[in-house]
Fold:
Amino acid sequence: MTFENLNLKQSLLDSVKREGYQTPTAIQFQSIPHILNGRDLLGCAQTGTGKTAAFALPLLQLIMQDKSTAKFRGIQALILAPTRELAIQINESFKAYGKGTGLINTCIYGGVKQASQVSILKRGVDILIATPGLLLDLLQQRIIELDTIRYFVLDEADRMLDMGFIDDIKKDHPQAS
Structure:
């Protein structure tokens, strides 16, 4: 099995090759076609098996297709990560895989001044990688709107719940229990 067998666009295949990937891992082989077919997915795999590429590559392709057939504006994909370090890592992966796609991604997280992050958001992004705390803060400030989101990824959802973010979810959505 090769990445070419997964029906990825040439710009994504070029990125995969640039990153030095030879063949898809099990999580990539199983996930990419599933996501490209527009289906929801819950994936579990060990660290280092290429989970980010398993969701990033098909999301990039779907967003490219969406943008070529319609005039979508605003954030198309939201990837939520529990920590700043993981959010930055995911953002770097999206940059690498997304080279040549024309899509714009950015990463927001707490602990730094908001001004530069808000400035990028106001210019417009297709893909937003965020930590829950700052995302909730920017939502409350009405700096971010999520009404254009078409794709949503919870990366390490179990860790987010362990870190106490369930309280924020319950506060904003009382029906969540």
Notes: The CA atoms of residues 66 and 104 lie 14 Å apart. The beta strands are 77-80, 105-108, 127-130, 151-154. The longest strand covers residues 77-80. The chain has eight helices and four strands.
